Amino acid sequence: MKDSKQLSIIMGLLDKRKLTEKGFQYEDLFYRSQALADYRARFPQTKESAMKTIKVDPDDMSRIFVFLEELDGYIEVPCDDPVGYTKHLSLHEHLIIKRAHKLYIKGHVDTLSLAKARLALAARMEEETEDLRTFKRKRKPPKNMKKIAEFSGISSAEIESKPPTQKEKAPKNSKDEELKKAAEFLDEWEEILGELDDE
Asked: How many CA atoms lie within 13 A of 139 on its CB side?
């Protein structure tokens, strides 16, 4: 575990962020902990010293690592995420979800609204992936197959090679209804994927 954290620190994306009473903000996510609050109480910060070096693991947005000069080392700071949005979430996925949120939800960005967008996007991805697996080989595959595969964590070749699967009829319960409603804002799917070209 220690070696894994050390590797995340070494390989993490380097950035600078200001330490506030709310912790750190990175890509519309907040990171804070009791240890960080205790640090602020023990070591009052100036405007200059409040700017801290952080390391972000692009494969795990559930935490960041912050270098604290007074402690001469990094501490792990978790994301303030009561709904579990950042669990198994990469930076790449997060940026795509933020783009979809901005285009179609256009409301306040927090972990709850992002989690709803993530559910909707995952549902649409599942539908798109299934469509890719079942299209006839004589037809031209959708132009966005590579982007869909990237978000789904699989290769486009894998999608083409897998045989069509029979979809199981999902039970009609409140969770399915909520997921269906959350997915409605992604009806203009081509526009979302087109926007990714501008990243």
From this structure: 10
